[in-house]
Structure formats: C-alpha cells, structure tokens
Amino acid sequence: KWIANYQLPITNLQSPISNLHHAGWFIYRHDEDYLAIRAGDNGQLGWGGHAHNDALSFEYSIGERNFLIDPGTYTYTSDPESRDLFRSTAYHNTLRVDSQEISRIPEGELFRLENDVRCRDVACNVFTWEGEHIGYKRLGVIHRRRFEKMGTGWRVGDTVNGVGSHTLEWFFHFDPSCAVEIDQNRVITKFASSPNIQITSNYQLPITLQQGFVSHTYSQRSSAPVAKFSLTTQLPFSVEFIISKL
Hints:
The chain has one helix and 17 strands. The protein has one helix at 80-86, and strands spanning 17-20, 25-30, 33-38, 58-62, 65-68, 95-97, 119-124, 128-133, 142-150, 153-161, 165-173, 180-183, 186-189, 197-201, 207-217, 220-234, 237-245.
C-alpha cells in the first residue's frame, strides 16, 4: 500500500525531498535514509473506498532494513473485523484522539469512510516538512505534525490544538523483522548488526509494547511489535519524538 514498501527509485530530484502534494505524498531519500509521509484525503470524491485512516502517518527505512512501516490491507469482505482493524487509525504511525477514528468508519460498510479528514502541507523544504489535518475537528481538535531531518535521524513534532482534556495515543508500527524493547524511556530495536534505531520523547510519556500484525500480501499477515505512547492531558499540547540511528 505504501510506496516505501516497494522501495521505488526516486530520480532526477533537485533535492532529497519530493513534494507530491497533489497525490498526498512527501518522500525523502538521501543515501540510505528513506522517509515517506502520507498526507492525503480520502479520495474517490471523499467516499474513501480503499482509503485508510493514515493521515500524517509515515514509514522509515535505512538502506534495506525497514523499521517503521504501514501494516497494509490484509483482507476485504472475508473478514470484516480485520478489514476495519487494518484501516483504523491505531494501525498507522499517527495520533489517535479519544479512541476515535480520524475519519469515522460507517458500521457495516467495508468500502467507505466518512469524509472527515482534510490534509494540507504547511511548509516544505529540503530538510523539513510540516502539515496538518482536521479529521478530529468534530472533537474540537486539530493535529499538526512537523518532520525535521537531524543528523542520523528525524525529529517528529506534534502539536495538538484544542481545549479541554483529551486522551492522546501515538502508535509506532515496526516491521515483523524487528525485535523491539522498552529501555527506560526509549523504544529500541535489537538487531545483532547495525543499523538499529531508538525512539525517544522530550516528554516522559507512558510507553507500552503491543502485538500487532503486518500484511505484505493479501490474505496473509505476520505478527509485529507496536509501540504506543499515551497520556490524558489538557489541550493545547506539544510533544517531540526523536527517531535516531544507533
């Protein structure tokens, strides 16, 4: 489903970032560093037949090693519960607010999403991209995300604008090949050889590891680790996640 899953070559670029905003893609590739950001709407004139709740989600790879990925599609009509799970907000590397979907999933409709989400890019240059979506506007919440290249990794900054108390959950889906551990206040991968990555935050958020699934091929899935950062807080709220190479 994601471009990064297929490692398509990006050629003839004047800079390492490609701003394909009409298609809802923002892609960075330089040397072994690969980042793909999804910032598109539901498509099909808002019907969202094949769309997922992936606004401001991303994938990250170093060379041939995939770290943070999109879990894929898995199935359609044969398993409605799994169909909805794989297109849910919690199955993407993005923020969930109050356990709600970015775009609501109509009950019993496997090929439609409510037309809640609207994405727009705010800023884009060689080493940064920033955008926001209004999928949570019905909750009084706007999610803005900024990616900034730094050394051997990325700073991912989230600003959650709104008022009142809300529960915020950030999901990070790892490739099935990754062994993942929580080490104090960081999430780390444990490959025997480099590269590895760690995810840290400037705010001491509670972290849990969960088992999720990744589907590289239709009707097949593999177990994969998911790291979740969460808290309940008053808005507005800002946090930064640092994804760095080890």
